[in-house]
Amino acid sequence: MPRINRAIELLEQGQPIFYGGGFPLTYEGGREASGTFLDYLLFDFEHAPFDVAGLRAFMQGLVDAGPTRSGHRTPAVVVTLPMDGISAECIRHNAWQIKHLLAAGVHGLLLCNAETPEAVRAFVSACRYAFAPGHPALDDGRRSNGGQGYAAQIWGLSPTDYLMKADPWPLNPNGELMLGLKIENKRALVNCERSLAVPGIAFAEWGPGDMGFSLGWPKPGYEHDPPYGPEMQAAMNRVAAACKANGVAFLSSMHADDWRELYEMGVRVSGARDAALVEQIRKHAGRTMPV
User: Fold this and answer.
1) pLDDT number for residue 1
2) Res. 102: pLDDT tops 70
3) Which long-range contacts (CB under 8 A, 24 or more apart) does 129-137 make?
4) H/E run at residue 181
5) What residues pair up with 84 in beta bridges, in sequence order?
6) 187, 160 in Cβ contact below 8 A?
7) Among 19, 91, 154, 158, which residue's beta carbon has the most beta carbons within 10 A?
8) How many CB atoms lie under 10 A from the CB of residue 167?
């Protein structure tokens, strides 16, 4: 296949991608998830137990039940990090989380409460090896040698080939790691334009649940789901505009009554609770890749 990461392959084509979860972090759960209609699987380690052993077993189950109908070895897997993106120091002190998750063979990571561009730069650097092509806006990579063996086996690569491909896209056009941000509180919102300008970020969301908490919930209009009040709508619009300006895919939930408007707004990543709605949006986008 042209890509290890099906989600990146679709984003390169301008296609929307859809994610979901709910599968148990077990070998059997991975086998069950192998045939999913989703483009990537999301596991929330922000609030759920940090179960790397279960994640490794799940990834092996994906491999053993594969390939997918699209011909990829597995669906892409993205994990929400427990740490918050408060500062560069916070990221560096907790970078062991990134090392353990990437060593399990996942294809992407999502940083919650990405409040400062300094934290985002540290996040990207923590996901890169020191020999990766440099960029003037980033420090050298900090991911260490020794964790690539299992991840390479999950990806179906030699350890050397894994080392070359395990780099953030689109910073590295040949990279297979998909890094995302949650711009989900008023502190992150103030810095969103600078944070989303950091090279190496593939997608970002505005996190309406936590954004609503930060801006004033439980007042009406600050709930997780629309209709939103003016302040919430302005937050969404600001993150969407910053994503567009920086070539970052915008993540927002799409529903039966608003998907056309949001698709035209630029949403290219969305949760998938309704398979029929997902199929409708894919048809509208002219998707040809098998699910």
Assistant:
1) 62
2) yes
3) 129/163, 129/166, 129/167, 131/163, 132/167, 132/172, 133/172, 135/171, 135/199, 135/200, 137/198, 137/199
4) strand 177-182
5) 112
6) no
7) 91
8) 23
Q: With a threshold of 0.85, does the pTM exceed it?
A: yes
In this structure, how many other beta carbons lie within 10 angstroms of the beta carbon of residue 274?
A: 15
Cα–Cα distance between 3 and 37 in angstroms, integer?
18
Q: Give residue-wise pLDDT tens across range 205-256.
A: 999 999 999 999 999 999 999 999 999 999 999 999 999 999 999 999 999 9
Alpha-carbon distance of 12 to 159, in angstroms, equals 25
- Contact predicate 219/172, CB 8 Å: no
**What percentage of the chain has pLDDT greater than the value 70?**
100
CATH number of 6-285: 3.20.20.60
Q: Is 33 in contact with 62 (CB distance < 8 Å)? A: yes
The first and second tokens of residue 204, run together, are: 């970002």
Tokens of 18: 């859809």
| Closest C-alpha to 4, from 196, 172, 125, 188 | 172
Sequence-ordered strand ranges (E) for 35-176: 40-44, 76-84, 108-112, 168-169
How many C-alpha atoms does 16 have within 13 Å on its Cβ side?
30
- β-strand pairing of 108-112 with 40-44: unpaired
